[in-house]
């Protein structure tokens, strides 16, 4: 993510234990974005209300080409490294993953 090859030793994003994070995800092509070890809620898609299948706690959101979505989560499970990535196998191979460090 961000055009850099994935490095499992690198921290790409840092947040604090208990912090609430709201993210805006934007897809160029189809991306099922997956967040490890924490669930999130979908706040909106394309600036509109979430779709019926967005209800409840999620760990993956499927974004279609050109689609944007806002999600919110709280990193309160434990301090350490969390991984987020695209679930398309070829995208994982291309390094579309990032490490989030909870301190």
Automatic annotation (TrEMBL):
Protein name per the record: Multicopper oxidase domain-containing protein
SUPFAM superfamilies documented for this protein: Cupredoxins (SSF49503)
Key word Metal-binding present: yes
Pfam families in the record: Cu-oxidase_2 (PF07731)
Ranges for domain Plastocyanin-like: 3-102
Coiled-coil intervals, chain numbering: none
Species of origin: Nonomuraea purpurea
Superkingdom of origin: Bacteria
Phylogenetic classification of the source organism: Bacteria, Bacillati, Actinomycetota, Actinomycetes, Streptosporangiales
This protein's UniProt keywords: Metal-binding
């Amino acid at each position: 993510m961000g055009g850099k090859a994935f490095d499992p030793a690198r921290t790409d994003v840092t947040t604090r234990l208990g912090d609430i994070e709201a993210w805006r995800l934007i897809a160029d092509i189809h991306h099922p974005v997956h967040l490890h070890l924490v669930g999130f809620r979908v706040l909106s898609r394309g600036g509109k209300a979430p779709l019926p299948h967005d209800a409840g706690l999620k760990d993956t959101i499927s974004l279609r080409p050109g689609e944007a979505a806002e999600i919110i989560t709280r990193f309160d499970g434990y301090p350490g490294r969390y991984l987020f990535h695209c679930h398309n196998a070829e995208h994982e191979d291309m390094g579309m993953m990032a490490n989030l460090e909870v301190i």
